[in-house]
Amino acid sequence: MYALLTSTLLLTSTVAVSPLSPRYEGNCQAPQWAPDGSKIAYEVNYHDRKVIELYLITASGQVENVLPAGASGGSLTSGFSTSGGSGVIHELSWSPASYQNYVYSASDARKDYNLHLKGGTPVATASGTDGAPAWSPSGNHIVFTSARTGQGDLYLLDVRDISGAPKRLTNDGDASELYAAWSPNGKSLAYVGHSNVGDNLYYISDVTKPKIQRLTRWKHMQTRPSFSPDGKYIAFYSNHKDPERFDLWVTSVTGTPKRLKNNVVMNSNGPVWYPSSDALVVVADEDEQFDPIYRVTLTGAEQRLDTGTVGNGDHDLATLGDGRSYLALSAQGSTDGTVRDFQQIYVIPLPD
Fold this sequence. Notes:
Elements: H1 2-8, E1 27-33, E2 40-46, E3 51-57, E4 63-66, E5 76-77, E6 87-94, E7 102-107, E8 113-117, E9 122-123, E10 130-135, E11 141-146, E12 153-158, E13 167-168, E14 176-182, E15 189-195, E16 198-204, E17 212-214, E18 222-227, E19 234-238, E20 247-251, E21 258-261, E22 264-265, E23 272-273, E24 279-284, E25 293-297, E26 302-305, E27 309-310, E28 315-319, E29 325-331, E30 333-334, E31 344-349
């Protein structure tokens, strides 16, 4: 994939960037690189119809519509909407590259949500919403949130016994557990405990022997935890300083949280780290500047990245075969473009 990207999408000051995805009458969101860099998963959100569709796209622009088993529509589309009415198919999580698989959440005719694997096969089915799956880096487990026995708890599904019952990890009657994120070694989890008094971060050091540790004790929202690639830090968003804005924070499991940047746009899949673990990519909530993108180091040093796009939002970063880092980005258009409406997916090479 990287050879085509470097030949067609390299950013220069004289050439406007072009979207990789087709144009929809809805916003593209939540781009996620496949572990081998061959595809990008993304969602299309049709707000008015309350429909979310899920797609995969290659560097050549070939689009695949991801559908549960039994759903209508072809597997390969030209990128236009195939959903005739209602439904939500979203929250894809890639398996490790060796598994060549993925898991996602989809609603059925009763508006119940279940998890599905590649090919549409449902797994861990039960009455009650199942969502936000996250495949472990080791490949052995999938963690997800389920309301099958209450208001929302974390469950662990053993991929080696995919038809077996999932193991319940949390059981807090006063909170719902959301946004679980794996550590790079596939052993630990960070997640959000949502309650009436505020959302805070929690940590499980070993999912096989779940013991819960609380990481933050603030009001308002602490959300979307994301481990650094070296596993030393957890980045997250918080509005406890000012409920009208979200800031980017980072903490270790045993350390004191540190604020890195004020007033940022939350990424749907959590803060995005550079492979070096010493910096993150973040979208600044600056309307007058069309929401620019910054590289922010753990010391708080900032570098604005000239992506050539405006109205920036969800993003994901991957290092491809040429050794360079590429940003998959949801944006409303290019700096030099005249059409700025629905967000599309762009791929931008980042500075070394």
